[in-house]
């Protein structure tokens, strides 16, 4: 059985019209964590969990300047999508931390963790999608094309009592992501054709 969901900005949409994505197994822990942390109505919870069950999700777009906090305050640099890409994600995709694969300008594919939401610790006014790739690029990536494959959900977003607590949580996310992405069914998504195909803008 093969399935997949593709949510992309206009730059990336045409590249994945016919791509088929292998089914993946999902760890039980994030599902339990999700249900314990979300106090939504039954119909809302069902819609959100159905959305998560459709992962992997692919997206792509130009890397833009973010808030400048990833490297300076957290020591965890991120690549940020423009608002157009953020708004292209399904509304039922819950905010929080995710893990998956990413590359820049069709280069090598790296493990990543992803934040989707408003970052309550900083009380952001705009929703953002921030990707931390587990690779040291040693250069600015602004203007280059970021492609991501969101493979799984780690935890809901929440505020923290201190910057140190936030950093510790992200470090924990990174260690979880490394372990999950080493599993065979998730590791094979690193080879998805999407990461090597040229993206063409669609009218």
Automatic annotation (TrEMBL):
Pathway the protein takes part in: Cofactor biosynthesis; FMN biosynthesis; FMN from riboflavin (ATP route): step 1/1
GO biological process, one term: riboflavin biosynthetic process
Top-level lineage group: Eukaryota
Domain Riboflavin kinase: start-end pairs: 52-182
InterPro entries assigned: Riboflavin_kinase, Riboflavin_kinase_bac/euk, Riboflavin_kinase_dom_sf
Keywords for the protein's UniProt record, in alphabetical order: ATP-binding, Flavoprotein, FMN, Kinase, Nucleotide-binding, Transferase
Molecular function via GO: ATP binding; riboflavin kinase activity
Flavoprotein recorded as keyword: yes
EC number(s) recorded for this UniProt protein: 2.7.1.26
GO cellular component: mitochondrion
Pfam families named in the record: Flavokinase
PANTHER family: RIBOFLAVIN KINASE (PTHR22749:SF6), RIBOFLAVIN KINASE/FMN ADENYLYLTRANSFERASE (PTHR22749)
Protein known as: riboflavin kinase
Organism: Drosophila mauritiana
């Amino acid at each position: 059985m093969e399935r997949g969901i593709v949510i992309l900005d206009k730059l990336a949409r045409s590249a994945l019209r016919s791509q088929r994505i292998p089914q993946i197994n999902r760890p039980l822990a994030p599902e339990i964590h999700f249900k314990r942390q979300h106090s939504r109505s039954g119909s809302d919870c069902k819609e959100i969990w159905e959305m998560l069950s459709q992962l992997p999700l692919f997206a792509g777009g130009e890397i833009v300047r973010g808030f400048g906090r990833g490297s300076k305050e957290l020591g965890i640099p991120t690549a940020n999508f423009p608002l157009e890409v953020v708004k292209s994600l399904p509304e039922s995709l819950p905010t929080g931390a995710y893990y998956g694969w990413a590359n820049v300008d069709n280069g090598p594919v790296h493990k990543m963790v992803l934040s989707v939401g408003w970052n309550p610790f900083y009380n952001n006014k705009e929703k953002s999608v921030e990707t931390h790739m587990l690779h040291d690029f040693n250069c600015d990536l602004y203007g280059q094309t970021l492609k991501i494959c969101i493979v799984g959900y780690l935890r809901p977003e929440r505020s923290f009592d201190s910057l140190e607590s936030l950093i510790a949580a992200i470090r924990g996310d990174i260690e979880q992501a490394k372990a999950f992405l080493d599993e065979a069914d998730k590791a094979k998504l690193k080879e998805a054709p999407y990461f090597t195909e040229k993206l063409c803008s669609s009218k």
